[in-house]
Amino acid sequence: MLLNIKNLTVAIEGKEIIKGLNLQVNKGEVHAIMGPNGTGKSTLAAAITGREGYEVTEGEIWYKDQNIIEMDADERANLGIFLSFQYPVEIPGVSMTNFMRTAINAQREYRGLPPMPAGEFLKLMEEKKKLVDIHSKLTNRSVNEGFSGGEKKKNEIFQMALLEPTLAILDETDSGLDIDALRTVAKGVNELRSEENAFVVITHYQRLLEYIVPDFVHVMYDGKIVKSGSKNLALELEEKGYEWLKEHSLA
Amino acid sequence: MEKDTLQQALPLDQMLIAQYRKNKELITANDIQYVSKLREEAFQTFMESGFPHSGMEQWRHTDVDVLTEDAYLNEMEVPDTKKDIEELFRCDIHNFDTETVSMLNGWYIDKDSPLKTLPEGIVVGSFREAMKAYPQIFEKFYGKIVPQNANGFVQINTAMMQDGVFIWVPDGVKSTKTLQIIKIINKEEQLFVQSRNLIVLGKNSELSLMHCDDSVNQQSSLVNTVTEIFVDENAKLELYKLQNLNDQSGLINSTFVQQMANSNIKTNTLTFNCGLIRNNIHVKLDGQGSHADVLGLYLMDKQQHIDNQIRIDHNVANCTSNELFKGILDEEASAVFNGYIHVARDAQKTNAYQNNNNILLTPTATINTMPFLEIYADDVKCSHGATVGQLDQEAMFYIRSRGISAANARLLLMYAFAADIISEISIEALRQRIDDMVKKRLRGELSVCDKCVLHCGAPEKEYHFDIDLSKI
Lengths: 251, 472
Hints:
The complex is a heterodimer of chains A (251) and B (472). Chain A is α/β, with parallel strands linked by helices and 251 residues long. Chain A contains nine helices and twelve strands. Chain A has one domain: 3-Layer(aba) Sandwich (Rossmann fold), CATH 3.40.50. Chain A has helices at residues 41-49, 73-78, 96-110, 118-132, 136-139, 149-163, 179-192, 232-240, 243-250; strands at residues 3-12, 15-25, 30-34, 54-63, 66-67, 81-84, 91-95, 142-143, 167-171, 198-202, 216-221, 224-229. The radius of gyration of chain B is 22 Å and the shape is globular. Chain B is an alpha/beta fold and 472 residues long. At the A-B interface, helix 2, strand 7, helix 3, helix 4 and strand 8 of A face helix 10 and helix 11 of B.
C-alpha cells in the first residue's frame, strides 16, 4: 500500500477540521475526493504534504511503510509526494527554471544522485513543456508571477511532470479553469498516470472526473469520509447534490 | 612613525583638535592656498560643533558616540608600505576588466604614478598631487558641493584630510573600463582614517566607478570618507559602492553630488558587512532634465548597524529621481533609512519616487524607516513607500513542498528579495560577481576578505538555483 491514513484527526489553531479519517491508496490508482466547501478536503492535502500549522492530534499517515506525520514538507516531497496547489504562490525574483532545477537537484541529492547536468535538465524541461502546452515565455519568468489562473494550474502540472512524484495530490486543480485548460491539465495528468504512481484528486465538481477518470470516489463531509464508491458515485452526487450527503452522514 | 602620546589618551575629537594645532604644517604641506583656507574654516566649525551625537535628530537612531569617544591612531605621514602593496592589492576579478586605484589606510598608493591620464583621457590620481596640478578645478569644485552646514564628520574631514582620490573626466570623454577604487584598512592599532575624493565629470562625459571599502584584518577602525562629485551637462555616472568591513569597524561615508542639465547618475550602495555604517548621500539636481537613481542593498547580521540617509534636492524643474533601498536584517542587526526629498518652489514637473523595503529575519532585528517629503512646487509627482516584513510563509511552504530544504527556501526568498537591486547593475561581469557575493553573504560564507572585496574565491558554480541559461 502506498498511502494508508489511519483515523486521522487534524486541528488548525486548536480547531478540529479532520475528525478521524481513513484512506488507503495503492500504486496505479486514482482516488477522487469530493465534498462541499469547508469539509476539510484542503486540510487533508495540507496534512499529507506537511504544511506547518496543521496539527495531527490523532492517527497516522503511512506512506511507503513510514509514518510521515513528523516529517517536514521538503522531506515528504523528497520521498515522492507532490501537491498541486489550489492557489499557487507567486515568487517574484525566482525564475521558474532556477526553481525547478533547485527542486530536482534537491530531490536527487536526497536520493544520493549527483545534480542533473544543465543540458539534460533543459531537455527535460522542453519535453515536459509539451505535455501541458506551457509556453517558454512563462518558464522564463519568475515563479507564477503574472500568470493567469489557468497558467498557474498548468504550471503546477508542469512541475509535477518534472518531479515525477509517486503520490500526487491535486487540490482543486479544476477551479478557475476554462474547458480548454481543463482538458490540457487532464491530458497532462493522464499521460503521467502509471502503475508506479497514484493520484488523489480533490475536487468540488464532477466535471474534472470526466477527464481524469478515477478508480475510487470518496465523499468527505464534516472532516470524515462518509461514502466511498466507484466513479459512478461522483455522478450520483452530481445528481442528488450535497444535501443528500447530510442525510447520509446523519443516518 | 613615532606614536603621539596624545593619541592613546584622548577621545577622538580632542585628539584631532590637538593634533591639528600641533601638526598644522605637516597637514598643509601639500596644499594649495584655497584648500588650506577651507581647512581653517572647517576646523573652526568643528571646534564649535564637534562630532554629531545621538542627541541630534538626524543621529537619533545611530549611536556614533561609542565610536567617537574612543581613542584612535591618526597617521599623519604616508606609511612605508611598499612591501605590503603587492600582497594586498593583487586583483584578478574574473572577466571584469577594471582600472584599479588603491588606497591603504587612507593613503593613495601609487603603483605607477600618483597622477596619471588613462588612454581615453580620464585623469586619475592622488588628491594631494592633483590639487597642485589642477588648482583651477579644485577652486571651482572642491568644497562647493558639500553644503555649508555639513556635520562634524564632514568638517573634520575638510580640516584634516591628507589624501584621497581625484578623478577628472574631461568634456566628451567616456570611460571604457570601470574604474575601481579599492580602499583597504590594515593596521595593528585602532586607526582613524580620513579620505577625501573629488570627482568631476565634464559635459557629455561618462564614468563608471566602483568604490570598495574593505578591511583586511580584524582590528577596529573608524573610516570617515567624504566624496564630492560634480556631473556636468549630459554627463553620465554609474557609482557602485561596496562596503565590506569587519564587525569592529565604523564607516562614515558622505557623498555629495551636484548634477547639471540632462545629466544622469546611478548610485548603488551594497553593504555586506560592517560594525556600524552611516551613509549620507546627498544629490542636488541643479539642471533641468537631470535624473538620479539612488539604490542600495544592505545585508546585516549580528549586532551590526546601518544608517542610510538619502537626500535628494529637486532644485529645478523637470528632473526625476528614483530611490530604492532594500535590506535583510538578521539576528540583532539594526538599520535606519531616512529618505528625504526636497522639491523647491520652482521645481515643477518633478517626478520623485522613493521606496524602502525590509525583511526582518528575527524578532530582535530592527528597522527605523522614515520617508520625508518636503514639497514647495504644485505640479509634481512624488511617492514614497516603506515595508517591513518577514519571509513569506506561503512561499516558504510552496518551495519546500517541491523538496527544497528550509534553509535553501529561505535563501531563495532572500535572494529573490535582493534581486531587483542586483539586476540594476548594468555591467554584466560586475553583476555576476555581486550576485555571487550576495549569495555567499546570505549563506553566511562571505567573510571579510583577505585581499579585496571582489577577490573572494572562485565564482559560484555549484549552487543549484544559480543557472544562467544564456551560458548553456
